[in-house]
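Annex B. Sample input.
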Amino acid sequence: QVQLVESGGGLVQPGGSLRLSCAASGIIFRFDAMGWYRQAPGKERELVARITSGGYTNYAGSVKGRFTISRDDAKNTVYLQMNSMKPEDTAVYYCKADRGGAGYWGRGTQVTVSS
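Annex B, continued. Sample output.
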C-alpha cells in the first residue's frame, strides 16, 4: 500500500524559510510525477509545484522564484524549499504522487506564516 508522509511544516515569520519533505513508502515503481498542493481555510486546494520523472517542473505564479521543488528517487522523496515566505502562503500543504492514472495523497502538514 502506497503511503506518503509529509514533514517540515510549522510556524515561520514573514520572509523566513521552510523545507517540506514527502517520503513515499510501499512502492516498487517510480512515480511519473510528484507535487505539492496547498489548501487555505475557505479556499480550494491548489497546485503549488510539480516535478516529473524527467525533472520538468512547473510552479504556481504566486510562488515562482520563491519556492523550489526537487526529488530524490533513490529515497522516494520530494522536497519543497520555501523562501521569502508570505502570510498568504499559510495553508495545509499536501504531497501528491502520480503513477499511470492513479494519484496518491499525503495527509498534509500545516504551514503558518505569521509574525
